[in-house]
Amino acid sequence: MKLCTLSTGDHVYRYYKSIVIPFEQPRKVASTAIVNGGYREDLTAVFNNDCNPGAGMSSIMRGPTYQEHMRIITEEIGLDPATTAGMGTAASMQNVAIHSLAYETLTVTAIVTGGVEVNGGRVGDPADYFQPLDKNTREKPGTINIILVIDADLPPGMLNRAMVTCTEAKTAALQELMAGSNYSNGLATGSGTDQTIVVANPASPLYLESAGKHSKLGELIGRTVLPAVKEALLKQTGLSPRHQHSLLRRLKRFGITEESIWQVYITGGEQVIKLKFLSQLYQLDSDSHLVTYTTLYIHLLDQLQWELLSGDEVREAGNELLAAAAARFGVAAPAITTIGLDSCLQAWQTLVLAIVRTNLQTTCTDDSN
């Protein structure tokens, strides 16, 4: 199935669980691809492949190494493994987002698939391993995969600069969605396995030597990649501003979940069954007042960790937010007793639990009447 025709004259196809771009003419390509990656001028095609066999199933390598796996996939989709660069992902190609913008004779197109619910992380998070491997080792499939097509000629180094700008745009999209890391309490800057392919057109009469944020090319990269990443995440996992308007999703990266709140609740000897407890918590989850207060409170915690506010400043402002939220819901206000992240989180969890407990008592009273 042909999805679109690029301004370069190349066609974008979707078949065999892949997004495929065969080149009509020679192209300049810089990519993070494990096979035929780096800077190349001899490639005949690029692609993005979904290696997920099905919902709830682990991705399976078709060969003993990632290189062999990609060779098999490349041949199956009818391309030459020696002159093709490809990316692997667990995201569905049905959820691809394509955004294109033009300025005068310059056109930039971003073709994106992605998801960060499972593998989203923040640069500098604690890593899982340090294990130097053979060059023929398996590689994990990428999660946010981007093919960026620039209909202009660029010197080799500028393709790399375009990739930097592209990466900044991806991170900005995640920042605007307040997507949390799965490996720390920070905001995600990407996933642990993202990949990018940048394509330039040496046949274009337009020659550009800048791809940074001060250039029009850099602007167009940002304005195509950022919304394309957001659209791809929405299609793949439902991640969106509306989805993030949630007490529990905002608190998740700090380890406060429905289960942690429940565990604190039952230590008090309460007799309400878990189903009723969670029902009240979920009703509270999207409450506009509590989500707003929680968002402001969490931003204080980020400022504390980034050392932009002192512990005393955060404690004072945090206690003011605790008092305001408690007054709104008619419960006693907890207080941050000591300076530090743990004390701040405990105070907010205590507030949420107090609101849930009050609502449960009201519900039980109504039921008895």
Automatic annotation (TrEMBL):
Gene Ontology MF term list: hydrolase activity
Pfam families hit by this protein: CbiZ
Keywords, alphabetical: Hydrolase
Keyword Cytoplasm: no
Superkingdom to which the source organism belongs: Bacteria
PANTHER family given in the database record: ADENOSYLCOBINAMIDE AMIDOHYDROLASE
Identification of the protein by name: Adenosylcobinamide amidohydrolase
Annotated organism of origin: Sporomusa termitida
